[in-house]
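wait is this the right file?? whatever heres the structure
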């Protein structure tokens, strides 16, 4: 039953006869009722007053319903002049009466009767009932305020917990993102190192090819030198000056012209083009190796600074990094060796070419054309 305070008191301000009023009260589980009347020649005049808590349980409301009636021994017949508790205007309520109690049968809209018993009371008792009901109302109000305060405190606690949880989740996301970004960068660096080593492998091959060109063209010069010697031997015993002129002209020019220009021109330019990007690649290899070698320690420090991350550094990553650093070092050695070898092959080719040309010139200068007799 909803909390409701019903306080009924009977007030008689229009009585013209000094007749003592009869007062009865009924205490409901959620309130109190009182009925009071005066009797004159069997005729009853009274008032039914109701005081109750509003639906919010915070305030009292009061209604007064006047009635008239008749008393016939222990029987009562009361006629209410306006609607009360579902009773229509001018509806008669029957009941019984004695010194111990009054019982009234209130018709219900459902067709039944609501029987209410009222006990004899005094004004002091009536006021005490009012005060008790008011105390209950105050208690309910205090409970309501306490409940609201508890709800507000609980809501504040919940909000604080939710804020703390949100902050914790934000830290997890932020720290996880830090580790993810770091790991992504490591993977990018490993991919770049792989691409760099692929480029270095191509560059190493170009340097080797450039060095081989010097050997190839030097062999061609050696063959032309051998041809000059053969022609010189023929010219030495020949009585035809044409053979001498062939050695001193065509054969010597082949060595000092086309063969030498292949070495000093095309071959040298080809090596220069191959050498140009090599130094940058060597620098890049150094930078990549240095950066990757420092990654494990950096990741260790980063992981310690971001303990809430849901990502962790794979245990195999340091091993992989070390393997790549070692491969970068080996790749650097291969590139450096290829560069040094190609430059050495050029220097050797130049030195042997000069020797071949010098020998060819001596051979050609030693030939004498003796005219035929």
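ok assuming it is, sequence goes like this
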């Amino acid at each position: 039953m909803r909390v409701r305070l019903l306080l009924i008191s009977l007030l008689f301000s229009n009585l013209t006869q000094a007749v003592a009023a009869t007062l009865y009260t009924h205490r409901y589980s959620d309130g109190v009722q009182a009925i009071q009347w005066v009797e004159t020649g069997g005729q009853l005049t009274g008032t039914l007053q109701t005081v109750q808590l509003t639906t919010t349980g915070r305030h009292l409301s009061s209604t007064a319903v006047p009635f008239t009636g008749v008393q016939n021994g222990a029987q009562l017949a009361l006629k209410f002049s306006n609607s009360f508790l579902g009773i229509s205007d001018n509806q008669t309520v029957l009941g019984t009466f004695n010194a111990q109690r009054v019982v009234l049968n209130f018709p219900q809209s459902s067709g039944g009767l609501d029987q209410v018993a009222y006990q004899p009371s005094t004004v002091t008792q009536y006021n005490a009932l009012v005060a008790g009901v008011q105390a209950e109302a105050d208690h309910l109000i205090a409970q309501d305020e306490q409940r609201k305060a508890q709800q507000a405190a609980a809501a504040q606690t919940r909000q604080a917990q939710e804020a703390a949880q949100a902050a914790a989740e934000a830290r997890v996301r932020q720290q996880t993102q830090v580790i993810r970004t770091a790991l992504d960068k490591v993977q990018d660096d490993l991919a770049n190192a792989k691409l760099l080593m692929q480029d270095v492998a191509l560059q190493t091959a170009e340097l080797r090819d450039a060095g081989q060109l010097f050997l190839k063209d030097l062999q061609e010069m050696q063959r032309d030198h051998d041809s000059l010697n053969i022609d010189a031997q023929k010219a030495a015993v020949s009585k035809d000056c044409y053979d001498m002129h062939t050695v001193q002209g065509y054969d010597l020019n082949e060595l000092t012209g086309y063969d030498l220009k292949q070495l000093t021109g095309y071959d040298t330019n080809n090596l220069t083009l191959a050498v140009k990007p090599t130094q940058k690649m060597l620098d890049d290899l150094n930078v990549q190796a240095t950066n990757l070698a420092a990654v494990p320690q950096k990741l260790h420090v980063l992981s310690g600074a971001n303990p809430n991350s849901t990502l962790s550094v794979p245990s195999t990553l340091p091993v992989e990094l070390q393997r790549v650093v070692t491969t970068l070092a080996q790749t650097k050695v291969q590139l450096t060796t290829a560069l040094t070898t190609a430059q050495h092959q050029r220097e050797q080719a130049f030195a042997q070419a000069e020797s071949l040309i010098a020998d060819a010139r001596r051979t050609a200068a030693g030939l004498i054309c003796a005219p035929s007799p």
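The longest helix spans residues 123-237. so i think its the right one actually
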